Each structure stands twice: as C-alpha cells, then as structure tokens.
Amino acid sequence: MEIIITFTKDVSSYLKNPAKISVKNYKIRNMATLKKLMTLLSNEGLVEERAVIIAQFTNGKKTSAKDLNPTELDTLCTFLENETTKQKNDLDKKRKRLIASIFGVFKLANRTVSMEYVKATACRAAKEENFNQIPSARLDSLYSAFINAQKDLTFSKRLVKGIINEQTSYN
After folding, report:
1. Which of 2, 20, 79, 101 has the most C-beta neighbours closer than 10 Å?
2. Given this model, what pLDDT does residue 27 score?
3. Closest CA to 73 of 20, 26, 21
4. Would the pTM of this model clear 0.70, i.e. be above it?
5. Is 62 left (phi over 0), alpha (psi -120 to 50) or beta?
6. What is the helix, strand, coil percentage profile of the chain, to 5?
7. CB pairs under 8 A, 24+ apart, for 75-78?
8. Angstrom distance (rounded) from CA 63 to CA 55
9. What residues have CB less than 8 Å from 105, skipping those under 6 apart?
10. Distance between CA 131 and CA 118 in Å, rounded?
11. Other C-beta atoms within 10 Å of 122: how many?
C-alpha cells in the first residue's frame, strides 16, 4: 500500500529552513524567561543592581540579561525564586514565633486574647500599622522581649508564692 501526499502550495520554503518554527518558539520562550527574571528582580527591589547580579552570576562574563543563554536564564530565575521563597518562609516562621511568645505572656497573666489582639500588640510594640510589615530584625527583637517577659512573669509568680508561703508559716 502506497500513500501519496500532494501539496496544493509550494512548501519548498519551509523545507529549506525547517528550524524557523523552533527558532521562533525559542525566542518567545527566551523573552518570557527574560520578563520573568525582570519581574523577580523588581519584586525584590533589585532592578538597578541587575547588571551586578548578572555579572556575579556569570563570573563577570556578562552584564546584560539579553546576553544570557536559556540555561543561564532558567538557573538564575530558579535561584531567585528559591531565595524569595526561603525569605518568605523565614519571615513566616519569625511571625509565628512572635505570635506564640505574645500568647505565652498573656497566658501567664491569665488572660485569654484573640489573634487580632495579639497582632495588634505586636504592631504597637513594633510601631507598625500592619503586622506583615514588621521587618525581620524587629520580629527577632520583639520575640526576645516577649520571651524575657515570660521569664519575668514566671519568676515573679514564684517570688509571690514564696512570700505567701512565708507569711502563712509565720501566722
């Protein structure tokens, strides 16, 4: 059985350079990855430093994102995405730690409070309007302060119990 295909148009121009289609897809993909890189850099506030970042990434060989090959672009984008995710996870952990320490202080003071109240307490302590806007270093210092407050409350409770026990033994 023989299959015969007849073309109604001249396809010789396509057959001369069959890579035209793949080159076009390559360029579109490359431009999309470039846009992704620029978005990642702008989200981190690093647009002005992009030449320095690219030079460090390529060991000084290139300074422009357009000069990067697709593998380098993908690798740099993946690296920036991972760093962003890591930073967000670190901040999230610090926020949760701070919330737990504030809840601990109120628990030792025999007060039941809501999550909104705890976040408002953290915002007042940090002098920020929004809980998520508290910087990393401030989250650390507030966490330490509230942990110290827990220790102070625990110590003062023991001290008061000791004084009460002394008074009852004298009477």
Report:
1. 101
2. 58
3. 26
4. no
5. beta
6. 75, 0, 25
7. 76/37, 77/33, 77/36, 77/37, 77/40
8. 5
9. 146, 149, 150, 153
10. 10
11. 22
